Amino acid sequence: MTEIIKNPLEMSAQELYALAKKREEQEVAAKEEAVREQRQALREQRRELVRRHRKELAALDREIGKLGGKVSKTRASRGGDDAGPSQVICEIVASEPEMSIGEIRERAAAAGLNVKNISQTLGYLKKQGRLDSPRRGVYRVD
């Protein structure tokens, strides 16, 4: 469908207003599309950067391990694994019917976890309903 283009001098005020409104909408749509494309390009650039850094971190971790050093267990070096401290603590507590905070602390330290905030983590897990405390200082999997 082709539009007949009139001379602006021959158009009524309503036609001029409609034309201006249509042009404005087209400009806004074009700007939104440009921003959308730029945002998508930046997201892809970020994904590539994260991918490259994960590979570099893994290579460094391997070198540190070869030299007998400890490797940090950050989310990136685990390759995106979601087995965080809370999950590890739940697994530790699940290994026995009931465990005291001292026993949990010992096993968590042996598993390489930072046991500095173990009480807060246990409280968080209890609040989430993942752990139960039948009596003070004793936990079990709910």
> Could you report the average pLDDT, rounded to the nearest whole number?
85
The helix count comes to 4
In terms of structural class, how would the helical and strand content be classed? mainly alpha
Shape: elongated
Radius of gyration: 30 Å
Number of strands: 3
**Alpha-carbon distance between the two ends:** 68 Å
Which percent range describes the beta-strand content?
Answer: 5-15%
Element order, helices and strands? HHEHHEE
Provide a descriptive summary of the structure in words.
- Mean pLDDT is 85; it is low at 75-82.
- The radius of gyration is 30 Å and the shape is elongated.
- The N and C termini lie far apart (68 Å).
- The chain contains 4 helices and 3 strands; from the N terminus they run ααβααββ.
- The relative contact order is 0.07.
- By secondary structure, the chain is mainly alpha-helical.
- It has helices at residues 13-66, 85-94, 101-110, 118-128, and strands at residues 99-100, 131-135, 138-141.
